[in-house]
Amino acid sequence: MASYHLTIKNGKKGTAAKHAAYIARQEILSKHEDPPDLIAFAHGNLPAWANGDPLYFFKMSDAGERANGAAYRELEIALPYELTEEQQYELACELVKQQIGEKPYFFAIHCPMAALGDVPQVHMHAMWSDRMNDGIERPPEQFFNRYNSGKPELGGCKKDSGGKAPALMKEDIKTRRANCADLQNKTLEQYGHQARVDHRSYRDRGIVKDVEKHLGAAAIKKLNEEEKAQIKDRRQKAQPQSA
């Protein structure tokens, strides 16, 4: 059944271009996979100087953002595998509108198979910049400079970040998680699926479940078929029960 996963990450200066290339599964930075796990990718709201190239945009973000600033933000979201690839792409676009809005972004949908269980793990990576479009054309050398409130045309684009109290930031994350779950459930319902996701923790949902140690792909490869079967059986018996 559909499962919920959402993480928010910040990327420091000097890491954006490489991470964008990895997400895009460029051959230079990503090993070949059989079958390829890249389903789709898209971008939007890029400034004119990027020429529709999100990888170039994030390369310039690496060069222009200040040393202690975030060169990018990222959302990693699990997508319901009950949906078709076309429906997953449609949902990803809606999630970008909901979570990122009009900021410059790039996203990719991956569908690797689980190392144990042969279950598709469909998910999306969405990278974006906090720089907001104000209608002023700036060259890349100026775009990532500090914002000039008195004369905006002389400074960089204003960032929609910073200055938030920890409590407000925590509330913002909770809202993001809830909105993401609501949109996924509406999409599942729209296409006639009974499965639903829940953004709340097991504790908040009154569910008791033993935490299993994450093995990882490398450890799983060392297991024989009998050991894999035992783990699968144990997981089936350990389905969460309401307290």
Characterise this structure.
With 243 residues, this protein is of the alpha+beta class. The protein is built from seven helices and seven strands. Helix 1 runs antiparallel to helix 2 (54-64) and helix 3 (85-99) packs antiparallel against helix 5 (166-190). It is globular and about 60 Å long.
In the residues, how many domains can be counted? Answer: 2
Total beta strand runs: 7
Q: How much beta, percentage-wise?
A: 15-25%
Residue-averaged pLDDT, rounded? 84
Distance between the termini: 21 Å
List descriptors:
243 residues, alpha+beta, BirA Bifunctional Protein, domain 2, 2 domains, five-stranded antiparallel sheet, disordered C terminus
SSE diagram, text form:
Layout: E1 6-12, H1 16-23, E2 38-44, H2 54-64, E3 70-78, H3 85-99, E4 105-110, E5 123-128, H4 140-143, H5 166-190, E6 207-208, H6 217-221, H7 225-237, E7 241-242
Helix pairs in contact: 1-2, 3-5
Brief description of this entry?
By secondary structure, the protein is of the alpha+beta class. Helices cover 33% and strands 16% of the residues.
